[in-house]
Amino acid sequence: MELLPKELYAIITNLYGEILYEIRKPIVNPELNYYLTEIMKTIDELKQNTFDSIYGIIGIGVGVYGILSKDKKIKFTTFNSWKDVELKKIIEDYSGIKTYVENEANISALGEKISYPDFDSLVSLNIGTGVGVGIIIGNALYTGNDGYAGEFGHTIIVPNGKQCICGNKGCLERYTANDAVIERYFELTNETITLETFINKYKQADKYVIQVYQEFINYVSIAINNIAQTINPKAIIISNKIVEDIPESISLIKNGLRSKIMNLELLTTSKFKSKTNVLGLTHLLIQEFFNVSNFYSRN
Fold first, then answer.
1. Mean pLDDT in residue range 215-237
2. CA angle 3, 66, 21 (to 5 degrees)
3. What is the second-level CATH architecture of the domain 117-273?
4. CATH fold for the domain made of 2-107+274-290
């Protein structure tokens, strides 16, 4: 189950990781009480659509856009006022099913590991509502001392730049997240558009969109450089609608990487696209159920 600012996305899979049933539900109010009610309704619907099986439901996985502590308490989310929420306990008390709650970038990295089982290190860079990084090192998820590792969107890329919700100025998120791209287009044109329209206008060679796109690519290239030099992973997988829908994006980002000491084997987009996070949760639950060190989908 993936908790998005304006949508809740949930699936049922079998033990092969194959999707059997899915739900997309609009969220009109991201505040806690309303959202919790929608989560519980969704769990009930998923249970009603689960086929009888030998093992039954082995677990519930929840991906959250925000910062979680080591004990998986939600400490901060950018799209609502959730603070110190013990979502794991709330769901387990309601459903009676073991629940795993994790940051969306972390579960995205676990999802990407399914596609690259031979890579013992990789980074999943998610650019969407915010900007997050999931880190796999030594075939294991790395979350840092307090569980906050990967909040790369709040690294400063423009000193004294745009004000960020985190309190800093000039954070990467303020220049590359979906809303930041649309905001930048508005600054140039005084026109509000959707991300889909932005991509369509790019294909129509709109000069303002091209300018914003080039700025976006430049910032992403800097981010990739910083990640590669700091973590030194074998692969960086980007999950972002602009990069996915404009084919030349990866080549342009690579052209922006000029370091002679970088040793990055693979830079690409996600094979799973919008399903990366929920499939990462599936990966984790199945891995834990079988008590194995890793799990690979047969897809």
1. 96
2. 20
3. 2-Layer Sandwich (3.30)
4. Nucleotidyltransferase; domain 5 (3.30.420)
